[in-house]
Design a protein that fits this description.
heterodimer; A: alpha/beta; two-stranded parallel ribbon; 12 strands; B: alpha/beta; eight-stranded mixed sheet; five-stranded mixed sheet; 9 helices; 27 strands
């Protein structure tokens, strides 16, 4: 069961005030920070990419440069870029694939209700925390499912809308159910749930927006390439892309330990193994190698990792983990710093 | 055996070691295990902690534990009450004595009341006790009209029970008990045998039995009775029958001073009356009848039991002994009233010197009279139990120096009854087939008392033995199970039936019907453990098929 953020509003207010006291000195992304109340200043032209606001297409310039045939070819459209925006647009993409519904508490302490420690829960809390900080400052927040045939996009103007979002997630992603991959299946075959969700980019993804992608990066290379292409487009529109890596391997390795194990999980056949340290190291290397390959496809994005602790069994530990990770994450903190 | 089961449990653990216990995990990084080097886990790991301690394993261990307990407790049992079924089998005496009257009615009426009392005791038992009842009647025969009936049916049957003019065979209830206890297919299993009679209980009734309670319930109080016990020909031995009959009487209880006995010939109504003066409880009265015919004998004031108060008999003609007397001295046949009949004699009397034994007629061989010597002659052999030597004083024979004859008839198998020691001379001999007897001489009347008694006793023993094969026709017949009704000379003078003064006491109390539990039975517990083991094996198999993945290993 996915629950709303357990962290208090005071914690978030203090976090915001503390972040605002810090001067942002160096900008890694190509975005421009907001200045509330100022007018838009033209900067230059750039080619249109899907997701750009069509109102910013400069038709006259496009016709002049590329001729009348440019009207039918979006690749030849030119759009205006501006020096500043009035508001921040925070586009939060949440990965909701089956691997994000894990890990599960193992074992459940006697007499306690097992807290939801899944990566999706963590992603939702992060999205809600950011929303709670951004909305009072009149920023726009978009919640978006990164992948999936059950695509979700919501513009969160008010926190009540977050509650409705939780309800929908609970309904559709309430709990992970083991569905072992049939024997003989290709684990690298295209996966239906890893189709990039294109909804929302055309409506809610203005230039200079911040695109926060929260995922475990356990998707395939095919999905990674789709994402990388979209990130490149976004970056071309001077959008700031932050990749939040929810890494639960340490926790899962700790609970697995060594010995005879039957292992199930998303896109995996049931395996019976005599686990030893060497085998676990091999898996760890495989995960690192996989992520490294993905990150190489998206070289200019900011990357931050939230690593699960090895001991995570109670709701209090879970809340502590979230607050620590949120406090320490410098890339997220930069969202709320003042410009130099 | 116990070690075999323990061995099986160890073997089961080893088998499950061969199937290591894989602890199940669901993790998000599971797909990355696909990409690691494939290496099959070892199939055999002989470590207890590696055993697959699945649910199936524990169920199977439990089944083996049940078998182990079955062995350990093979000698133990749980005591439980025996079956709470009361099967009462009524056995009712319907002999002639049950017609004995008292102020409250006949003994048959008392029987019905006794059965009702037992049925009321049964009706008072708790509802959970199953009651079944059966009814058998006996006199000289045993019949079971109701082998399994409701108490109400038994009550109705008891009310309509009647006696039969027959005697009583007290061995029949014992035989019935033996039959019932040996049968396992009874619709009404026997727990209580209730015998209702007016006779004294035989000894076997008090013998304790494991599974059956025997109650002998005596009905009727002792009551005075006198009656005829038997009617026989009087005479008819050596002298022949001269028309005399002897009526034997018995008095039970108070002995009267006198009784009046009347006999009347049916054809002409001529009757004789005799007054019997009672000096003891058994008396006789002899009548000399006037001729052949049917006679009715009646005893006045016979008492509570009526079947012995009168009798009808049939009498033939008087009979004289027919003898072929071939001795010169015919004093004795004349004295005894024997009729000379050479054609169809009953016995023949010959001299030993002239034996004509035809094999058909019993023959008395008589020696050449008693030869005596001055010196006593010792007896060398005598046949014990020989009828001719009955009441004979053998010392007299020795002292008198009686001479014998040489042994004879060896080819016929003659039994020498009395033989002299020194000379082996034969004094007395008998032979069955052909039937003859040898005596030294005819009876004498010399005035020498011992000698005369010896000769006379020996002669009469001999002729009585020879006449023995002949019997006079019976004066009456007794009723029997095949002909149980009184008719003419078929009467009910069965021995003992008129003895109405028996101080018989009941054996067993009706209270023994109340204790429902006739004993404790020890049920073995090992059966339940084996049953539990079988159930567990069945359960394990069912769950393996239908119980899902967790029961599949």
């Amino acid at each position: 069961m996915y629950t709303q953020l357990p962290t208090s509003q005071n914690f978030l207010t203090e976090y915001r005030l503390e972040a605002r006291r810090t001067i942002r000195r160096a900008m890694i992304g190509g975005h421009i920070m907001r200045r509330l109340g100022q007018s838009l200043d033209f900067h230059d032209f750039t080619h249109y990419t899907p997701g750009d606001d069509i109102r910013h297409v400069d038709w006259r310039t496009s016709l002049r440069k590329n001729g009348v045939q440019a009207l039918n070819n979006p690749d030849q459209w030119l759009i205006r870029r501006f020096l500043a925006e009035e508001q921040l647009t925070l586009f939060v993409s949440l990965d909701m694939r089956p691997s994000m519904l894990l890990p599960q508490i193992q074992p459940v302490p006697r007499g306690e209700v097992a807290p939801n420690i899944s990566k999706l829960q963590m992603a939702l809390w992060l999205a809600e925390a950011l929303t709670r900080i951004a909305v009072p400052d009149h920023d726009k927040v978009i919640w978006h499912s990164l992948f999936g045939h059950r695509s979700v996009v919501s513009k969160i103007d008010h926190l009540d809308q977050a509650a409705a979002f939780y309800e929908r997630v609970n309904r559709e992603y309430g709990k992970y159910a083991v569905q072992p991959l049939p024997l003989g299946s290709d684990p690298n075959a295209p996966r239906p749930e890893e189709v990039l969700n294109q909804d929302g980019f055309d409506r809610f993804f203005p230039p200079a927006a911040v695109w926060l992608i929260i995922t475990d990066f356990y998707f395939t290379d095919l999905a990674a390439r789709q994402l990388a292409a979209r990130v490149h487009q976004a970056q071309a529109g001077r959008r700031w892309v932050i990749l939040v890596d929810l890494d639960s391997w340490s926790y899962e390795r700790a609970i697995l330990e060594e010995g005879f194990r039957q292992i199930d999980g998303p896109w995996s056949q049931t395996k019976k193994l005599n686990l030893d340290k060497q085998r676990l190291n091999e898996v760890e290397m495989q995960i690192a190698k996989h992520k490294r390959a993905l990150f190489e496809m998206i070289p200019r994005a900011d990357k931050t990792a939230w690593v699960y602790p090895t001991e995570l069994r109670t709701s209090a530990q879970l809340q502590q983990f979230f607050e620590d990770a949120f406090q320490r994450d410098h890339d997220i903190r930069r969202l709320f710093m003042k410009d130099a | 055996m116990i070690w075999i089961v323990v061995g099986l449990m160890i073997a089961l653990t080893v088998v499950y070691m061969l199937r290591p216990r894989f602890k199940a995990f669901i993790i998000s990084a599971a797909s990355f295990f696909e990409q690691t080097a494939v290496e099959k886990p070892p199939r055999v790991v002989l470590r207890v902690d590696a055993a697959l301690l699945s649910r199936s394993f524990w169920v199977q261990v439990l089944a083996l534990a049940c078998l182990l307990l079955a062995l350990l407790f093979s000698q133990h049992g749980i005591e439980q009450p025996e079956s709470e079924t009361v099967g009462v089998w009524f056995v009712v005496d319907t002999s002639a004595s049950m017609s004995t009257r008292a102020s409250e009615g006949t003994r048959m009426d008392a029987t019905s009341a006794e059965i009702n009392a037992v049925l009321e005791s049964l009706a008072a038992l708790p509802d959970e006790v199953a009651v079944c009842t059966s009814l058998t009647v006996f006199d000289l025969n045993l019949t079971t009209p109701l082998p399994n009936a409701t108490p109400e049916a038994i009550r109705n049957a008891a009310a309509s029970l009647t006696h039969r003019p027959l005697g009583t065979d007290l061995t029949l209830p014992r035989r019935l008990l033996a039959q019932l206890t040996s049968r396992n297919d009874l619709d009404c299993p026997l727990t209580h045998l209730v015998i209702i009679s007016d006779a004294t209980a035989p000894g076997w009734v008090t013998e304790p039995l494991d599974d059956t309670v025997v109650l002998w319930r005596v009905v009727g109080q002792p009551i005075d009775n006198i009656g005829i016990t038997n009617i026989v020909h009087s005479g008819g031995g050596v002298l022949g029958w001269q028309g005399d009959i002897r009526v034997e009487l018995a008095a039970y209880g108070t002995v009267p001073r006198q009784s009046i006995l009347t006999i009347r010939r049916e054809t002409d109504g001529i009757s004789q009356t005799k007054t019997v003066d009672w000096f003891q409880n058994r008396e006789t009265a002899t009548f000399t009848l006037t001729g052949a015919g049917t006679y009715t004998i009646e005893l006045a004031e016979g008492g509570a039991y009526s079947y012995d108060d009168s009798a009808m008999i049939v009498v033939g003609d008087t009979e004289q002994r027919r003898v072929d007397w071939q001795l010169p001295d015919s004093t004795i046949p004349a004295l005894l009233g024997w009729v000379q009949d050479s054609a169809t004699p009953e016995i023949r009397v010959l001299s030993i010197d002239n034996p004509l034994i035809d094999g058909q007629t019993p023959t008395l061989l008589v020696g050449t009279q008693y030869q005596r010597s001055a010196d006593p002659r010792d007896i060398g052999y005598f046949e014990e139990g020989n009828p001719l030597l009955e009441n004979l004083n053998l010392d007299v024979a020795e002292a008198l120096g009686i001479a014998g004859v040489n042994p004879f008839g060896a080819e016929l198998g003659v039994r020498y009854a009395l033989v002299e020691r020194d000379s082996n001379a034969v004094w007395v001999a008998t032979n069955e087939t052909p039937r003859f007897a040898y005596i030294p001489g005819l009876p004498l009347n010399t005035g020498e008392e011992n000698f005369d008694a010896f000769t006379q006793t020996l002669f009469y023993n001999a002729v009585r033995w020879l006449f023995q094969t002949r019997e006079l026709p019976a004066l009456y017949t007794l009723t029997s199970p095949t002909q149980p009704t009184l008719e003419g000379t078929r009467i009910a003078l069965h021995p003992g039936e008129g003895d109405t003064y028996q101080a018989a006491a009941s054996v067993g109390d009706l209270d023994t019907l109340v204790p429902l539990v006739s004993g404790m039975r020890e049920n073995p517990v090992w059966v339940w453990f084996v049953f539990a083991a079988a159930l567990l094996v069945l359960l394990e198999h069912l769950l393996a098929v239908f119980g899902g993945r967790k029961w599949g290993t």
